[in-house]
Amino acid sequence: MSRSRRRIRRRLPAPAQLAVDPQILRAHGEGHPGGGQGQGDQGADGDLIGYGRDATNADPLLEYLLGFRERMGQARRLLTDAERTAFFFVTLPEALPIAVISRFIGWFHEFGIPVGGVIVNMVLDRQALGDDMPEFVRNRVGMQDEHLRTIRDKFGDGVRAVVPLFDQEVRGTAMLAPAAGALFD
After folding, report:
1. Hey, which CATH number is domain 82-184, 3.40.1010.20, 3.30.70.120, 3.40.50.300, 3.80.30.20?
2. CB neighbours of 163 closer than 8 A, spacing ≥ 6?
3. Do residues 119 and 160 lie in contact, with contact meaning Cβ atoms separated by under 8 Å?
4. At 55, is the pLDDT very low, low, confident or very high (cuts 50, 70, 90)?
5. What ranges do the domains of the chain cover?
6. How many Cβ atoms from other residues are within 10 Å of residue 120's Cβ?
7. Residues 56-108 pLDDT 10s
8. Dist CA 82 CA 112 (whole Å)
9. pTM for the predicted model, two decimal places
10. How far is Cα 114 from Cα 81, in angstroms, rounded to an integer?
11. Would you say 115 and 108 are in contact if contact means Cβ atoms under 8 Å apart?
């Protein structure tokens, strides 16, 4: 044993010399300072009992945690039920969003959560642009074509829809019809 440990031990009182406040013992029951039973011990009826608790005085935190565990179990059963749930991932024809959904889809498969497919959003429409495109737009179309090939290679039949870039944001009821047409055609 090192000298520093010997010094520390010499300074600490022996367990028999430690005074225990009698009020603490009365409040928590005789025996150890936590009450009649240790943390996580079981009472006569088999329920977990915390410090200073008995079977007739339920612990509200424990009740909450047990209820929370049950709710999480219900959520997990729902999320992993392929008959009732599927997640669709929306991506853009760009490298980073493709990498992000690839990672998420992998995680969903690992956790047994069903994936319904991939929707590609904001694709430039060559026909709407015509042949007289500025160089910037032509470069963007070329980039998107390359990423669309990557998406088809990675996700194959999992690609459920390709939605064009509209001339305005899809917002309000007027834009729902064109967006739905792109999604469900």
Report:
1. 3.40.50.300
2. 119, 120, 121, 122, 123, 179, 182, 183
3. yes
4. low
5. 15-76, 82-184
6. 24
7. 668 899 999 999 999 999 999 999 999 999 999 999 999 999 999 999 999 99
8. 9
9. 0.64
10. 7
11. yes
**Distance, CA of 56 to CA of 50 (rounded, Å):** 12
Q: Rounded distance, CA 57 to CA 50, Å?
A: 10
**Residue 58 backbone dihedrals phi, psi, to 5 degrees:** -65, 145
Return d(Cα 47, Cα 55) in angstroms, integer: 7
Cβ atoms of 125 and 148 closer than 8 Å: no
**Rounded Cα distance, 92 and 71, in Å:** 35
**Separation of alpha carbons 49 and 56, rounded Å:** 10
> Which DSSP string do the residues of 87-142 spell out, in sequence order?
EEEEE-SSHHHHHHHHHHHHHHHHTT--EEEEEEEEE--HHHH-S---HHHHHHHH
Which amino acid is it at 92? L
